[in-house]
Design brief:
Elements: H1 5-37, H2 43-66, H3 76-100, H4 106-113, H5 116-127, H6 134-156, H7 162-190, H8 192-214, H9 224-252, H10 254-261
Length: about 260
């Protein structure tokens, strides 16, 4: 028996709610990062602490989802996609974002990073040949005009290296948009929890390797407030929103999820 219109609307509404909560939770990350930088922790170490605290949650999530009844086998191609998306979404995008926050304010970082919905629209138009309608085009123009005005204001304040910081955060936004577009299909096949568990575990591993290459192990020894901020970042700005975002994509698709993210 086909689901009723009311059931479909409720299903989509819950997906929209998940996307909204994920956006709000992700937004707190910039503030937590700036608070941690007060203690002179470097970007790679802070990112490593964030992912180290988040890793146990993602491992449990991956194991639980794999053991659920009806879990499909992961094909070799799927492993390749998981690895690529894991590297892009929460390693490279996060690293670029953390580096950008060394140079610009948290408020400006949020404005630039949340250009990703417009980038999703543009990339979808290029890759999937989806036509950009008139009202969407106006929204794109307003978004980029607003960012230009904010940048002009901060440049007038002679904020150091604002162009570099803005470019790093914009690159993060672009990488994240690519991650979102690439994740829709595999989330539909594997489910949101399984995708999140595996992709994020891969991200954590790559961050750990990067940290091991550039920093000594004793760099993880930080003041207690840094651990507290990193733990809060791991739970409330990583684990929870990553799962909710994937479930939002599964329910309402990438385009709608990304647009809701601009809230």
């Amino acid at each position: 028996m086909a689901p009723s219109a009311a059931a479909n609307n409720r299903y989509a509404l819950i997906g929209a709610l998940y996307a909204f909560i994920a956006a709000v939770a992700f937004s707190g990350k910039a503030v937590l990062v700036k608070l941690a930088y007060v203690y002179s922790v470097d970007a790679v170490t802070l990112l490593a602490l964030r992912m180290l605290f988040a890793l146990p949650f993602f491992i449990v999530m991956a194991i639980w989802a794999a053991r659920r009844e009806g879990a499909v086998d992961i094909a070799r191609r799927d492993w390749g996609v998981l690895a690529l998306l894991g590297v892009l979404g929460y390693y490279l995008a996060s690293l670029l974002d953390f580096l950008g926050l060394l140079y610009i304010s948290a408020s400006l970082e949020r404005l630039v990073i949340f250009l990703y919905p417009t980038l999703v629209v543009v990339l979808s138009a290029v890759y999937f040949k989806r036509r950009i309608t008139g009202h969407v085009g106006v929204a794109l123009l307003l978004s980029y005009t607003g960012i230009a005005l904010v940048f002009a204001h901060d440049v007038n304040l002679d904020q150091k290296d604002i162009i570099l910081g803005g470019a790093l955060v914009f690159a993060s936004s672009l990488v994240y948009a690519i991650y979102l577009i690439g994740s829709g299909g595999i989330i539909a096949r594997l489910g949101s929890a399984r995708f999140t568990g595996y992709a994020m575990t891969i991200s954590c591993a790559v961050v750990g390797v990067h940290f091991g290459v550039v920093n000594p192990v004793d760099a993880l020894i930080q003041p207690m407030p840094v651990y507290g901020l990193a733990l809060a970042m791991a739970i409330f700005s990583t684990v929870v929103p990553a799962l909710l975002l994937s479930e939002g994509i599964r329910r309402i698709g990438v385009d709608k999820t990304s647009v809701i993210g601009s809230i």
